[in-house]
Amino acid sequence: MSIQYGDEEPLAGSFGAVDSFPKDFGYGAEEADGEGGEAGPDTKPRILLMGLRRSGKSSIQKVVFHKMSPNETLFLESTNKIYKDDISNSSFVNFQIWDFPGQVDFFDPTFDYEMIFRGTGALIFVIDAQDDYMEALARLHLTVSRAYKVNPEINFEVFIHKVDGLSDDHKIETQRDIHQRANDDLADAGLEKLHLSFYLTSIYDHSIFEAFSKVVQKLIPQLPTLENLLNIFISNSGIEKAFLFDVVSKIYIATDSSPVDMQSYELCCDMIDVVIDVSCIYGLKEDGTGSAYDKESMAIIKLNNTTVLYLKEVTRFLALVCILREESFERKGLIDYNFHCFRKAIHEVFEVGVSAHRPNSHMNMQNMKTVTHNGAPRAVV
Ligand SMILES: Nc1nc2c(ncn2[C@@H]2O[C@H](COP(=O)(O)OP(=O)(O)OP(=O)(O)O)[C@@H](O)[C@H]2O)c(=O)[nH]1
């Protein structure tokens, strides 16, 4: 395995200086800081985490965005107020995650749900699959129907969670039953147009990262372009699979159009962990300054089954991780050249995003806000 670390020059091009990656690989501020001309703390697009008490909302947020180990979540205290987590300082995912305290009382006059739902990109409703879920289904129905009336553009995502405790047959049966009941309730209320997506999740494996990846991908307007670029890149380079990862969260924000198999995804996640861990230990300067992830970051891992994993930096938040055969890797020069073109194209995609978001651009502020609310990813890469 070879890992290279570089110095911290700013990225070339018009993306502005690249702040060093947090050297302890830490995460963004807990409260939004409304940095540099972007939307203020409470106007960033939101992903809401809702569900009954103890369904696992805080655990999901801590494991995915704060590197908490699943076992540590056993000691999490119950959330008793809305917890707003702004992850945009360290992640490509320029959202606020709002963790709600158990049941929300829609009749509480201090709870301005209209304001909350209006600025929401995705609402994730977490159902504990190890518990009796009838009450959760009633809550799900109340929550999504209220939210839909305020903002029909919200993506409604249902995490059937804690499935680590269920047998494979039981998982499928639970998903089928929840799917059926939830949709029947919506049909009875005349809300057939309200679409719910279902995911089986657990914090004890990669399923929670996979599910979150899909939720976030739906909020990225540039997704089709990113997928196209990945398809072109892999087909011209003899690569089997490529993921564009948000390094901090290990959410993949895009992949090529071949099907995703869980093992490949897990392998790539593990590679990111290895690279960052080794980099944190050996990649920093003597005085402890420097960055664990910067524009020179790259790694090659050759497995004993003639597979090669290849990681390269794309932007300060994104890495490309590819899986390929050893024989294809003999043409590394070609792959590197294609990667260079791919990286340039990705920067151009987001550069367009930046200029479209500049206050003096032709787009008026009203339009800009609409784009942001519905989930545009961060403009500055
Ligand atoms: N087996 C299993 N347990 C989980 C999973 N996710 C969370 N838990 C456990 O569920 C319990 C409750 O988790 P929390 O994250 O505090 O739940 P919450 O929904 O935030 O609860 P409130 O803050 O009261 O609304 C904790 O003991 C977690 O360890 C999972 O995927 N599998």
Automatic annotation (TrEMBL):
The keyword Hydrolase applies. It catalyses: GTP + H2O = GDP + phosphate + H(+). Pfam families: Gtr1_RagA. One of its GO terms (cellular component) is lysosomal membrane. One of its GO terms (molecular function) is GTPase binding. GO terms for biological process: cellular response to amino acid starvation; cellular response to amino acid stimulus; negative regulation of autophagy; positive regulation of TORC1 signaling. Gene3D superfamilies: 3.30.450.190, P-loop containing nucleotide triphosphate hydrolases. InterPro entries: Gtr1_RagA, P-loop_NTPase, RagC/D. It comes from the Eukaryota. Keywords: Cytoplasm, GTP-binding, Hydrolase, Lysosome, Membrane, Nucleotide-binding, Nucleus. Transmembrane segments: none annotated. It is found in: Cytoplasm; Lysosome; Lysosome membrane; Nucleus. Its main location: cytoplasm. Belongs to the GTR/RAG GTP-binding protein family. Guanine nucleotide-binding protein that plays a crucial role in the cellular response to amino acid availability through regulation of the mTORC1 signaling cascade. This is Ras-related GTP-binding protein. It comes from Callorhinchus milii.
